[in-house]
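Q:
My hope is that you can spare some time for a protein that puzzles me. I hope you can help me see how the letters and the tokens relate. Thank you; the sequence and its tokens follow:
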Amino acid sequence: MKQKVVAVFALGLLMTAGCTNYVKQPEKTNAAQVTPAGDPLSSWNSGDIKDAIIKYVQTVTDSADKSYIPVQDRIATFDNDGTLWAEQPVYFQFFYALDKVREMAGQHPEWKTTEPFKSALMNDMGGIMRQGEKGVLAIVAATHAGMTTSQFDSSVAQWIDTAVHPIKKMHYNAMVYQPMLELIKYLQTNQFKVFIVSGGGIDFMRAWAENVYGIPKDQIVGSSIKSKYEYNNGQPEIIKLAELDFIDDHEGKPVGIQKFIGRKPVFACGNSDGDLQMLQWAASNKYSNLELYIHHTDADREWAYDRKSAIGKLDAGLDEAQKKNWLVADMKRDWKTMFPEGK
């Protein structure tokens, strides 16, 4: 495979030896979407980035301006991990998979002595790492495949409402970025059709992202495993299989955009080299376009990482952004607030 599965579901998460066990809390936490009156991007500090975004939207939605973009061509694409919500110390979908291993362990006593499950149950990330891509695949297959799509949707929705991040001690759906919630709402208000185009699992995101981001399920593009249709006693079902179908990362993102959207974006936003090709694709649009990178620079409120990070590496993308004058939002400088409700 040209793109490692690790880069889709768990790239670099194998490097996080010593992660604590997950904490469960009963209360439900949902991110609030806020569009303050008079300032649609109130969680953004005043400066060149905020000004450029607002100027772009005002210009391309003005029918009298030469840069006007027809409504049907106002396509905006956003990466998810590290762009709309946090992604450290590992991609959150892998936290889900490891949590499910623990939950399912009672049905699989053999896991106590079988890798990579033995290491997962012992919270030994180094042990999982030694199993390589094959080990990650085994965990993903065991926790994602075999269920109907409705069962998987219910499982993820329950997890996202209860699981707590081992470091931040926050619900995962509270670790979305308030400035990005405002940006999505601002674009939607100006008749942009907003899509998520992510390397994460499409069904994993669809289980919760619509409620959190206000982006419909049919506007979410992601990586997927294969499924099959069954008609069991008159009951139609879609069953998830333990086999890869589509990798929506790096070069896969423009392919996914063409395959599932059919229109080239005019606004593209990401945070890593995995998003570079998506931004390049948007930059080739005949219409006026805007490319935006989110740069993780705030070690106090979140994490600071870029060129040498195992998760969310931003190296070639940062160079190209500087070369082509794409926007690079510095989280520490440009964002007043990180998470909703000031978290």
Notes: The first strand starts at residue 23 and ends at 24. Residues 125-144 form the longest helix (20 residues). Residues 1-36 have pLDDT under 50 and may be disordered. The domain at 5-14+41-342 is CATH 3.40.50.1000 (Rossmann fold).
